[in-house]
Design a protein that fits this description.
By secondary structure, this protein is mainly alpha-helical. It has 3 helices and 2 strands; from the N terminus they run E-E-H-H-H. Strands 1-2 form a two-stranded antiparallel ribbon. The two termini are 80 Å apart. 0% of the residues are buried.
């Protein structure tokens, strides 16, 4: 086999043929891609590692923030429970004071007009206690329903 061939009437060697094929088939691009492929893998792996590290850092920060917020809620809840306890105590004291006053006014020697007003106060307080009891029952029922409610999905 000889090293010279004719291409369109021109004498060319194998080097020229391979050079032309290389140029036509994009051999330089393929060579560059083959040479850069390991570096591209390294860049991708590095980017994935950085993304993973960033996500782990974010999750760790969010978990820490959630713990802080949970402690704040617990502190706030304890403060509210203490305030509610104090309000209940004050309300019970006021209620006992009114009951004591009504007992003092429960006297046969009182004028009839005053006896009627004392009875109206007692009736009003009885209606208020009934309304409070119904409201407590409603709140309890709502709490029970919330525990057993099944979402409609």
């Amino acid at each position: 086999m000889s090293g010279n061939h004719s291409l369109g009437g021109l004498q060319v060697g194998w080097g020229a043929v391979f050079g032309l094929l290389n140029l036509l088939l994009g051999g330089g691009v393929v060579t560059a891609w083959i040479k850069l492929r390991p570096k591209m893998r390294e860049v991708n792996a590095s980017a994935e590692e950085k993304l993973r590290d960033d996500l782990i850092a974010r999750v760790t920060k969010l978990e820490g923030d959630a713990t802080v917020r949970e402690r704040e809620r617990d502190t706030e809840r304890a403060r509210h429970e203490a305030e509610l306890g104090m309000m209940r105590h004050r309300l019970n004291n006021a209620d006992q004071g009114i009951e004591a006053l009504l007992l003092i006014l429960d006297d046969d020697d009182l004028p009839e007009r005053l006896k009627v007003k004392v009875q109206r106060i007692r009736d009003l307080r009885a209606r208020q206690k009934d309304a409070e009891e119904r409201e407590r029952d409603t709140i309890r029922a709502a709490g029970l329903l919330a525990k057993v409610a099944v979402p409609l999905v």
